[in-house]
Design brief:
The structure holds 2 protein chains of 2 kinds.
Chain A lengths: L1 H5 L8 H26 L7 H14 L1 H33 L1 H14 L4 H12 L3 H25 L3 H9 L4 H42 L7 H13 L2 H29 L5
Chain B lengths: L6 H11 L9 H5 L2 H11 L1 H23 L8 H14 L1 H33 L1 H14 L8 H8 L4 H24 L3 H9 L4 H39 L4 H10 L3 H29 L10
Helix pairs in contact in B: 5-13, 6-7, 6-9, 6-11, 8-9, 9-11, 11-12, 11-13, 12-13
Classes of the chains: A mainly alpha, B mainly alpha.
Chain lengths: ~270, ~290
């Protein structure tokens, strides 16, 4: 308790101490996991060394990279659909009051419905292929994009808009030259959050489609995981897929943060 | 750290805090007499517009459903209402909803019991935070959904799987917001309390907990939202009952009106739970009304 009060200026760490801090807990836990796997004496039990072997194996076969790319492709296309619809509607709802009052209740009532709840309908409409997965991604990404765009547009400084219209700037140019740049931070934040949920949604969709169409079918990394669970019973490969899912999520997040810094240098 | 996950908090700012910008008054608005005025004031009220939008939505749905003319692909609102009534009379809806909400409550309780003490410890001790944070950041990008195949193998189909997935999903927002909440406690408050000789236990109960509570509540609402979304996936794939199971079950039987009815129930239950949490937030932290965290 006293440590927080006294530690106003944290002591500077040497590089080595910092490295120890960063890696100690993960390494210890991975060590425990390895020991547990050796003691369990079951060749199917996942162990760090077997996970690495499995990773090399999967990459060498090309299956893992292909599946990841397929999932990423779906995420990007679903995200693009959500971006177009979400930002368009967001600008409309953010700048025209009655549109917002009209659409807000609908948006709010769909928001607690999880993307996965749409899966059965998506399968009914589109079958078990890419379109079903895509629609779920677009649905998931739509809400953060829309809500953040509305938030951004409605927070644009009115004085800027009024100043521009006083000087006789057309409504269209006010939109493109004043409102859009001013709401860009919100839109980008919405994009980052949307991309995060989209990546989660594609895994869920592929898993669900894979589970319900008897494995395979849709492809992608989620379906791959399900095949490893249901048919090959290869836990190491499942862990490899999980790690890949995590790494991709992290990369997406970092990419968007980087874009935020580059596109809006005035923010940081 | 907390900003990353505060969409719903932002959302609150939007609906509750800041009034939407006024459009410049047009000539028509100034000159509108009598009846038009009544219409205008009606349009301005939220409830009226909400009713309008639902009515419009249902009409549109009905029209599209009639045009599609396929009961399996897109049942009409009337058919869905019928299915909802039937499921309600037979009690099936309440059964599945009860199963899902019980799981939700259990997992949120477990997540709170795990994440909040750890969050306080990590918020108070820089050293503990420095050691544990890398591990948490390593685990956090792996979404709860990605754990489903492995968890299916470990726990099998049943209650444990959705509960595990939900605890995992709820853990991170709760933990990170608790840490951020504890760290954002005004140092002056702590120093003042210490100067006056307040002992650690009362300090925790009377200074730290109330000061960190608003952020913890935000974390709790985010945790709920994540868990409610994850339970559908978990139940759909690996559970013999619950709302997520029900939608997929009726999809396989091609009984679409019931699928839509259950989706409706998922939305309503989620919405009601969120209302409950907001009420809880108002009771526990009434002083943050109208701020970013409300």
């Amino acid at each position: 308790m006293s440590s927080i009060v006294t530690s106003i200026a944290p002591p500077r760490l040497s590089r080595r101490a910092w490295l120890i801090q960063m890696t100690l807990v993960p390494l210890v836990l991975i060590g425990i996991w390895e020991v547990w796997a050796v003691l369990a004496n079951d060749p199917r039990a996942p162990a760090p060394t077997r996970v690495i072997e499995s990773f090399i194996d999967l990459v060498a076969h090309g299956g893992l990279i292909l599946a990841t790319l397929q999932s990423l492709g779906r995420v990007v296309s679903g995200f693009a659909i959500a971006l177009v619809v979400g930002v368009f509607l967001g600008i409309l709802m953010g700048s025209v009051r009655w549109v917002r009052n009209l659409l807000d209740p609908i948006v709010e009532s769909f928001r607690p419905i999880a993307p996965m709840a749409i899966l059965p309908i998506a399968i009914l409409w589109f079958g078990t292929g890419t379109p079903a997965a895509l629609s779920i991604v677009a649905y998931a990404a739509f809400f953060p994009l829309l809500l953040n765009t509305v938030h951004g547009v409605s927070q644009v400084d009115r004085k800027l808009v009024l100043a521009a219209s006083t000087m006789g700037v057309s409504r269209w140019r006010i939109l493109t030259n004043v409102v859009l740049p001013a709401s860009l931070p919100s839109v980008l934040l919405g994009s980052r959050l949307a991309m995060g949920v989209a990546w989660t949604a594609i895994i869920a969709a592929e898993l669900g489609v894979g589970a319900k169409s008897g494995g395979g079918g849709s492809g992608g990394i989620g379906a791959m995981m399900f095949v490893f669970y249901a048919y090959n019973i290869d836990l190491n490969a499942i862990v490899v897929c999980m790690i890949v899912v995590g790494v991709v999520a992290l990369l997406i997040d970092r990419l968007f943060r980087f874009a935020e810094r580059r596109l809006m240098p005035w923010r940081s | 750290m907390a900003i990353d996950v505060t969409t719903s908090a932002q959302r609150e700012v939007m609906t509750a805090g800041i009034a939407p910008p006024e459009r410049p008054a047009t000539l028509a608005a100034v000159a509108a007499p009598g009846k038009a005025n009544l219409f205008r004031s009606l349009v301005a009220t939220r409830t009226f517009m909400a009713l309008c939008s639902f009515a419009l939505f249902v009409c549109l749905w009905h029209l599209v459903a009639t045009w599609v003319g396929n009961r399996v692909l897109l049942p009409s609102p009337v058919q869905v209402a019928g299915a909802l009534y039937q499921l309600g009379v037979e009690g099936e809806i309440f059964e599945h909803a009860l199963v899902s909400t019980t799981r939700l409550a259990i997992s949120l309780a477990v997540a709170v019991a795990l994440a909040i003490p750890l969050g306080f410890a990590m918020g108070l001790s820089d050293r503990l935070n420095a050691y544990l944070d890398p591990f948490i950041e390593l685990l956090r990008p792996i979404s709860g959904i990605a754990w489903i195949p492995l968890a299916l193998f470990i726990f099998g189909v049943g209650d444990a799987l959705p509960v595990f997935i939900m605890v995992y999903v709820a853990f991170f927002p709760l933990l990170l917001n608790t840490v951020a909440g504890v760290r954002s406690v005004d140092r002056k408050l702590l120093n003042a309390a210490r100067t006056m000789g307040v002992k650690p236990a009362p300090m925790l109960m009377h200074v730290l907990v109330p000061a960190a509570l608003p952020m913890v509540m935000v974390g709790f609402r985010l945790a709920f939202a994540g868990a409610w979304s994850a339970i559908i996936a978990a139940e759909l794939i690996g559970s013999p009952n619950g709302l997520g199971f029900a939608i997929e079950w009726y999809r396989e039987l091609l009984m679409s009106p019931k699928v839509y009815a259950f989706i409706l129930v998922i939305g309503v239950v989620g919405y009601l739970c969120d209302l409950l949490l907001r009420a809880l937030q108002r009771v526990l932290t009434p002083w943050i009304e109208g701020t970013e965290l409300a």
